[in-house]
Amino acid sequence: MSSRQDKSDDEALAGARERIDTLDAQIQALIAERAGVALDVARIKTARQRTDFYRPEREADVLRRVAERNEGPLDDATITRLMREVMSACLALESPLKVAYLGPEGTYTQAAVYKHFGHSVRAMPLPAIDEIFREVEAGNADFGVVPVENSTEGVVSHTLDQLVGSSLQICGEVALAVHHHLLSKSVDLTGVKRVVAHAQSLAQCRKWLDRRLPGVVREAVSSNGEAARRVAGENQAAAIAGRAASEFYELPMLASNIEDEPNNTTRFLVLGKQKVPATGDDMTSILVAIRNQPGMLHRLLTPGAEAGVDLTRIESRPSRRQAWDYNFFIDLEGHIDEPRVRQVLDAIESQAAMLKVLGAYPRAVDTSST
C-alpha cells in the first residue's frame, strides 16, 4: 500500500515537473516574441525620428491591467513586479534609459528606481538632490528619482526647494514601504559604538535606538547608502540601511525592521522633461504663491471642494522672496487635462500671485518592502 502510494506520488511529481518544463518553454518563447515586437516598435519610432521610447502613461496602463487580470495564486505586487522586469528588459532593447538617483549604491532611492523602471536601466548614483535635477536638465540622464516625503518624518525640503526653479516635469511617483535594518560587522550590539544613517532614518528609528543602543553616538550622513559604505570597513560602527545595502556592501544584519512605525513609507518623484497624458488614475502637483491678504489660503482651497477635486496634500516652504512669505505645494487627484481639474487650477490661478504646474502623472498603485 505504502509502496504503491509512493510510486503514485513519484509519478505525479514527475508529471508536474514535466508540465513546469513545458510552461517554462512557452513563457520563454512568449517573452522572446514580445522582445521582437519591442524591436519593431523601436525601428518604427527611429524611422519617424521619435525619441519617446519610454512612455510613463503606457507603462502605468499596462501594469494596471496586469493587476486587474491577476487571479492568483501570486499576489498583485508580485505579478506586477515580474511584468515590470519583462517590460524593462524589452525597453532596454529599444533604448536603454539612464536614471539618476540619490546615491551611492544601496540607497532606498535606488530601490525606488528599480521598482519603477525595472533592473534593465542604467542607474546613475549622484551625491546630492540638486545634482540629480542638473543631470536631467542637461540631458545627461533621461529621468531622475528623488525622495519627496516620508509618512513618519514629513517632507524632504530640499526636493521641494529644487522644484521651484526647475523646468523639469514630475512624470511619476513611487511609494516604497521602507524597512530599516541595522548593518554592522560587529558580532553583536554590545560592540557597536557609533550608528551612521541619514538624519530622517535616525529619527524614524529613534525609539529603537534609545531602547537598544542608549548612549551610542549617532552620526547623520547624506544617505543610508553612504552610511553603509562608511561602516563597511569598520567593526565598531553600524549603519541603518535597507536590505540592498546589506547585500551590496556585504554587511550582516544585526537587527531587522528597527523602524518605530511599521507602516513607514517613503514617496519618491520621477523627474523628466516630458508631459504625461492622462491614464484615468492620476495626480497633478502645483506650486502656488499667494498674496499676503486675510483669508487668501481659504480662498485658494475652496475651488477644489466646490468641484469635488480632492487636494491630497499641501505643504508650505519659505519663498525666500521676503520674510514670512511662503510657497505652497499642492497635490490634487486627477489630471490637468480633465475639465474639472482645469477648472480648479484656473480658479486658484485667479486668486494666486503665481501658479506653476509641476506635473501631471500616474498615481503610484502599490508599495513594496525593501
TrEMBL record:
InterPro entries to which the protein is assigned, alphabetical: ACT-like_dom_sf, ACT_dom, Chor_mutase/pphenate_deHydtase, Chorismate_II_sf, CM_dom_sf, CM_II_prokaryot, G/b/e-P-prot_chorismate_mutase, Preph_deHydtase
Residue intervals of the ACT domain: 285-362
GO cellular component: cytoplasm
Annotated CDD domains: ACT_CM-PDT (cd04905), PBP2_PDT_1 (cd13630)
Chorismate mutase domain mapped to chain residues: 7-98
Pfam families (UniProt xref): ACT (PF01842), CM_2 (PF01817), PDT (PF00800)
Residues in Prephenate dehydratase domain copies: 98-273
MF term (GO), any: prephenate dehydratase activity
Record site: Essential for prephenate dehydratase activity: T266
PROSITE patterns: ACT, CHORISMATE_MUT_2, PREPHENATE_DEHYDR_1, PREPHENATE_DEHYDR_2, PREPHENATE_DEHYDR_3
Any one of the GO BP annotations: chorismate metabolic process
Reaction it catalyzes: prephenate + H(+) = 3-phenylpyruvate + CO2 + H2O; chorismate = prephenate
UniProt pathway annotation: Amino-acid biosynthesis; L-phenylalanine biosynthesis; phenylpyruvate from prephenate: step 1/1; Metabolic intermediate biosynthesis; prephenate biosynthesis; prephenate from chorismate: step 1/1
EC nos: 4.2.1.51, 5.4.99.5
Keyword Glycosyltransferase set for record: no
Predominant subcellular localization, coarse grouping: cytoplasm
Subcellular locations according to the entry: Cytoplasm
Sorted UniProt keywords: Amino-acid biosynthesis, Aromatic amino acid biosynthesis, Cytoplasm, Isomerase, Lyase, Multifunctional enzyme, Phenylalanine biosynthesis
Domain of life (superkingdom): Bacteria
Function of the molecule: Catalyzes the Claisen rearrangement of chorismate to prephenate and the decarboxylation/dehydration of prephenate to phenylpyruvate.
PANTHER family: PREPHENATE DEHYDRATASE P PROTEIN (PTHR21022), PREPHENATE DEHYDRATASE-RELATED (PTHR21022:SF19)
Record-given protein name: Bifunctional chorismate mutase/prephenate dehydratase
Source organism per UniProt: Salinisphaera shabanensis E1L3A
